[in-house]
Amino acid sequence: MLLAHFIFAAVFSLSNYSYAESVAHTERYELARTFVEELVGMHQAEVLMNRDLKAIPQNSDRTQATMIAIVRNGTRTRMRLNVTIRLLQQIEPVDKNFESLISYLITMYGRKEQLYAEMVDAGKTMLAGEKPGVDYGVLVGRMPEVRAQLEFVDESIFKAVPMLGMLMVSDKPDSKGHLSHFAITRKEAQEIISMIQTGFGKSLDVKEQNWTTSSASILRTYLRDKGFKYSDDPWQ
Length: 236
Known about the structure:
This protein has seven helices and no strands. It has helices at 2-54, 62-89, 96-127, 136-159, 161-167, 186-200, 211-225.
């Protein structure tokens, strides 16, 4: 009877560990994928914005066309950021560090959404034409400040990439007691790397990168070049 109880307890413990390991694997993958999707989305939004600005004819009302581009691209960005925040909120934290990073990213993305909302509102006000009580000089002067704050947020996100890279490493030691494997499979890692390379293209090879591209470059380096094995590689 005592032996049966011991066997049951051992099996139950192993099954719980296996389940916890499976959850940790899934949540780490979802976090990395969601993070990269947002990076790619932001990069593409920047490309579209620059394309819209370059397409404005020289002999047209450039101020109005610029405001239209700001409203259109800013609205798209706000919608995407809100989706990203909801996806992060659905991820189950596997430990305190994981929970802290998710909370941090939600805060950063929320701040970005607020700043883009301010830009969109300013653009709409400018497009509506002159109205009494509106200081258009203040609106125009505020735009560079908003851009500077967005750059600061992007830099803050960049500084969180090393933590994300470390969280991709499995807590399960190999036969030598080393943490040598990622918690995600080789296929999953290659999928994320492919998303980065497809989404950013040649901008990954540019020496002077903005914070968004630099974040993608650093994460690609962690997943591809740091020498870690993947969860489906031999655990030796």
